[in-house]
Structure to design on (134 residues):
């Protein structure tokens, strides 16, 4: 059901500094920041030959990332994202097997302009999973 790894998301307290570290220290291609108000984050994508790194920081006080950074002030891996061909079929199959989909269960549009869903980390070895329809 899942396809390739789309990205690994890292929550960071200082988006500018984190992006500069990837660009200047690691020599990576860094995309410009983009606000994602529906998800309460500002993101920067780091382009790698085989996948992406998504740096996230809170956008507003109600951001779910603010809570994550309160517990992890230096930042850390927030979630991993896998591609799926049909997000609704994937959702239905996962729910039928007992996996919990976060939120309403209906996909939202993610940072790449495609439908996404998040799966409860307690159902996946403590890891928050994002599914993105390709």
């Amino acid at each position: 059901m899942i396809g390739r790894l789309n990205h690994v998301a890292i929550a960071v307290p200082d988006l500018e500094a984190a992006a500069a570290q990837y660009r200047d220290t690691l020599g990576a291609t860094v995309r410009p920041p983009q606000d994602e108000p529906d998800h309460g984050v500002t993101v920067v994508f780091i382009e790698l030959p085989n996948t992406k790194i998504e740096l996230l920081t809170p956008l507003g006080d109600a951001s779910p990332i603010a809570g994550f950074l309160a517990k992890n002030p230096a930042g850390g891996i927030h979630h991993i994202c896998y591609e799926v061909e049909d997000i609704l079929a994937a959702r239905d199959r996962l729910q039928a097997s007992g996996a919990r989909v976060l939120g309403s269960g209906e996909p939202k549009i993610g940072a790449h302009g495609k439908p996404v869903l998040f799966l409860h980390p307690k159902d996946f070895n403590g890891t928050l999973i994002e599914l993105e329809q390709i």
